Amino acid sequence: MTRDLLVVDKVTKRFGGLKAVGGDAGLSFSVPEGTFLGLIGPNGAGKSTTFNLISGVLKPTSGAVILDGKDLSVARPSDIASYGLGRTFQTPRAFPSLTVLENVMVGADNEGETLLSVLRGGWRSRERALRAKAGEVLDRVGLTERINDVVANLSGGELRMLEVARQLVRDPRILLLDEPTAGVDPSLQAKLSRILVDLHAEGRTLVVVEHNLHFLLQIADSVVVLQNGELLSKGTPGEIKADEKVIAAYLGADHAA
Q1: Model confidence over 214-227: pLDDT tens digits?
Q2: What GO terms in the biological process aspect are recorded for it (predicted)?
Q3: φ, ψ for residue 2, nearest 5 deg
Q4: What backbone phi and psi angles, to 5 degrees, belong to 204?
Q5: In the chain, which ranges are continuous DSSP H helix?
Q6: pTM of the full predicted structure?
Q7: Which residue ranges form the domains of the chain, and what is each CATH number?
Q8: CB under 8 Å to 190, separation ≥6 — which residues?
């Protein structure tokens, strides 16, 4: 039986008197290792807030987020990254004055580099290894030809692909993508779909928030649906498309199986 890598356990988040996530009982769901979970819901359902709670940007009012036995709800964001969690944001975050390659290298894990290794010239071999790894992930997302371009010159879709590359270079155990197709043209969407399918096939654990249901329901193997910050439904894409509660609240009759 596949073990759960990520567990959201009765999590609530309140801003003042507003219950943004969890309602009275708290939000609970789990992500087994190696699975591809889609997180969907109408605007204001609490998807991005849930992502922020998982990645440590926000701390829950109650409940816990557990990654491989570690309670992320009491960990620093830097520690969460070291535990193997990678996350992109709705608005791409990059250094516009740096090149594509430099942006990916900045996102790489520099664990193991010490003052002594720098003095001995170890940084040179480390830099060569980082450049090679950055080149590999940029090739994977189709940005090889832009590798020396300044990021400020990239299109919105290319920035999305760069965000994915900046996470992949760290080789995360679980990758959270927040609206990865926003502003991405159909050809790049198809490329992104192939990348995610390949990552899933390699055993990577993925959690993706997405408004583009046609894109997501074709490639995810399980789906969690939120409404007003609470769990409305969960299941396979086929089960979700046939769920009358989801159809009534979100999908509409055109999505019924």
Answers
A1: 899 999 999 999 99
A2: D-alanine transmembrane transport; L-alanine transport; L-isoleucine import across plasma membrane; L-valine import across plasma membrane
A3: -70, 130
A4: -70, 140
A5: 47-55, 77-82, 100-106, 115-119, 122-140, 156-168, 186-201, 213-219, 237-242, 244-246
A6: 0.87
A7: 4-84+172-255 (3.40.50.300)
A8: none
